[in-house]
Amino acid sequence: MSSLLHQALLQIPRETLWIADENSRVLLQPGFQFDGDLLTNRWDIAELAQGKVSRNFFSDFHLEELDRKYRRIIYSVSKEKAVVRHVIDQAPRFLGEGGELVLLGEKQSGIKSYAVKAAEHLNGTKQLQKHGNEYVSTNRVAHPGAIEPTGEADYPHLRSLPELGNLFSKPGLFGWNKIDKGSALLAQQFTTELPEDGAHVVDLGCGYGYLSAQLAPLGNFHFAATDNNAAALLACRKNFHTLGIPGVVLPSDAGDELESGAADLVLCNPPFHQGFQVEGDLTDRFLQHSARILKSTGMALFVVNEFIPLAKKGPRYYSEVQLVNKERGFCVYRLRP
To answer: Fewer CB atoms inside 10 Å of the end CB: C or N, the chain?
Structure first.
């Protein structure tokens, strides 16, 4: 997808918005330059784009913050369906008459269905071109004022969900409306792995803050929760505020910007998907940064899918790696520097 996206970006006018997600990371290397604006919900993408684009925005796809109209919006579709539907819904508001919404994706991304949805929304006919295993859908806005919303207008709103114990979450966040089985298994260990009062706890890859919310009532701790995803940060901040959890919620890429040697405990349920791909290096990055963040007397608790070889990866960064629980396809490890 990167080659097709790169070609598209090189052939577009300056009045272009590039909506970039995790699939775009490979392009943002030294020497890359793009004359248009970039909007992303990924902190790592926003950081990589510094100095490489005209204007750079990090948010949960809040297009209204851009305060302008574009001749073209180009988007390599995300894995999260709600995000794609939201972009299709909002794009006509920020395209002038004759402006184009360009969607790119491989077959498994759902691009064919999105092409139909975009054409229906923009009152046009489906335009879909195949380039090998990749597709490009181009949809032109004929009469912007006549376009009605698709029903995705509630995408930005946080929701208090009974199935999460009334924690707040929202679409755009992986597993947004459920309790992850691995995280629930990790939380079961808190009573036996409880840190001392006053401990500094880092929730690494916090999502909507489930692990912090489970640990906070068990003692007097200070939390630093961090995630790469803008929707996760919004939800986690809301839950910290609602529950009175003491601490901060910060953007970072696998904890790369957190202070070294400051944490007594790191909690982590690391992702193993980067967009549509399984990405094994993600586990290594979370292990590396968690080890850097910890005090020499600290401890990390990781939960991973059983096919992730953390027992082999962990010793690269920790002197002690111990499996403490294994259930329902997940493994919980205790790690010490």
So the answer is: C
